[in-house]
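Each field is set out as follows.
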Amino acid sequence: MTINSICICGAGTMGRGIALASARAGFFTLLFDLDSSALDRADEAIKEQLQQSVSRNKLTAEEEFRILEHIHYTSDLQTCLADLFIEAIVEKTEAKISLFNQLAELNHSECIFATNTSSLSVTGIARGIKNPERVIGLHFFNPADRMKLVEVVVTPMTNSLTVESTTRLAEELGKTPVICKDAPGFIVNRVARPYYIEALRLAEKGVPVEQVDRVMEASGFRMGPFRLMDLIGHDVNYAVSVSVYEQLDRPERLRPSVLQQEKVQHNELGRKSGKGFYDYNDSPEKP
């Protein structure tokens, strides 16, 4: 199936990043969110990012105009018509199932439903959809418009046409798609759990987070674990840790950190809230 139009559901940090990647690649891009203020923030953030690229001579004014021409915004679900839907909404299986089933009623019989979930079972979502063969995971990484990797998460019900179409789409977005089976944490989040959890264990024992980050960055990691968790968002990172832990029958080595749980409870989510393990209040990222 040829994908010509993409609708991204959820105008938060991840959703707007995927929308920007889609528009850059020349696709008709629709960004949907029930909250019109979230759409306004996304529009402002995208324009600001593009203007910065123009000022740094990484983009021409003509290219900026072309990209913005491809992005459309809506808070009306009835107007969400597309070949591919990528949801980046709240991490609740029931909410994702409800959204996809509503969209299925409005759209043609071959449209594809992709979830950007980082912590939920894609198979669990697909089981609640009338056409589970058209459900797949497309797991982007933050910032979605710049990070190359995309995990293409296949369930036992996903058909080959859906896999082929979404993999080709990822390549057209300039991404590096990696096909993987649906499993707790997929590949990246499964492998990365010890990087975060062991660092949090050290912090719980009183080791300064700055020291841990400096050591890991000096050893070749692009970002230390605490800077990276602040970038990802502790709400998201903690949810992934809990999900992987529960789905793997609670192995002690993957027990989620109480320290990170407290960060979430205090709304110290990292860059997007202005504070995490580091203080960003001078220039917090807008949600």
Residues 36-55 form the longest helix (20 residues). DSSP finds eleven helices and eight strands in the chain. Residues 26 and 242 are 37 Å apart (CA to CA). The domain at 5-181 is CATH 3.40.50.720 (Rossmann fold).
